[in-house]
Amino acid sequence: METSPSPYGQYNNKYRQPLFQFDLQLFAGEKTEEPTAKRKADARKKGQVGKSQEINAAFVLLAGFMVLKVLGGNAVAEIMNYSTYIYGNLNVDINEESIMQMFIGMIILLAKTSIPLMVFIMIIGLAMNLAQVGLNFSTETISFDPNKLNPINGAKRMFSKRSLVELIKSLLKIIIIGYFIITYLKDEVFQIPKLIYMDIFAGLNKMSDTIFFLAFKIIGVFIVMAVLDYAYQKWQNLQDLKMSKQEVKEEFKQQEGDPKIKGKIRQKQRQMAMARMMQEVPQADVIVTNPTHFAVALKYQSGMSAPIVIAKGQDLVAQKIKAIARESKVPIVENKPLARALFAAVEIGAAIPQELYKAVAEVLAYVYRLKRKTRYYA
Questions:
Q1: DSSP secondary structure, 39-67, as one string
Q2: Where mainly located (predicted)?
Q3: What is the pLDDT of residues 158-187, one digit of tens each?
Q4: What is the average pLDDT score of the chain?
Q5: Which of 101, 78, 77 is nearest to 89 (CA)?
Q6: Residue 28 domain-assigned (yes or no)
Q7: Number of domains in the chain
Q8: N or C: which end of the chain has fewer CB within 10 A?
Q9: Residue 260 domain flag
Q10: Which of 233, 260, 247 minimizes the C-alpha distance to 38?
């Protein structure tokens, strides 16, 4: 079978059919365009923004351990004082009133030791959200969506690229953080037997120092990973918002209006303006023509600073103006230079320029003389 070269692929000479060809329509829906400002704003309203939950978790952990480091001593002292008070009053009769007092004391102790920690963690969590996405309140993410109950959609989400990335991230976190824990504790584990020879307070201080040092070391690693995750989430969100060329065109039509519809609107507006202009022709004092190409309708009343153009047209419109003028018995004067000048220099509804006063005055004077003669002979 012979073939001949072609810019569109190879052709079968016998049947003149292409052996292969590219169908560009297959690429019509490819999302290659950067998201527009409207696309980003709509996504933001729906809560689709690039943010990392790892950032929130890392800084909340950091804030929590910092508060525990600073206020932990006071909290322990408060708990010990209250415990001493309770055990020192065990000989008191156990009744409803004493149980209520113990319960109230425990509530007050819990509030004094935990509220500062919870408030500080809440502030840090809000601050991290504001730092990532700014002030943005959306109920789209928490609204009920029946599609989320669809098992097929659920399976697609489970085996999607995003789920795979999240799985890899989780494994990396476990491996990296586990490595730091093992390398740190393998040296510290030999210090544990020494705690037997310490008093209880020294032993607790040693254990707390070890725990806090390890915690801050792990949180440091966690923060680095969270920053990298934030950069990835921003990039992924931008990829998700990318648009195809057709989507860009559709959005432009929605914002600017369909060109066909806009063209019909402009055509309708021109028709309405033309109809209003033709209604004004019978009110004119004179029609200045050239004699086939241009027609300009002039009107002058006492109190006007200068005559005004109430209608004008070229070619077919000019013939229509003259036809209406004949039906309404409006005088028609042929003056080629004046007709061209008025058509080019004066818009409808505007007064004639000063340099045309003399020429227009001569035409109006001629028309007024003609009207007086007509009334005289009538």
A1: HHHHHHHTT-----HHHHHHHHHHHHHHH
A2: membrane
A3: 667 777 877 888 888 888 888 878 887 777
A4: 77
A5: 101
A6: no
A7: 2
A8: C
A9: no
A10: 247
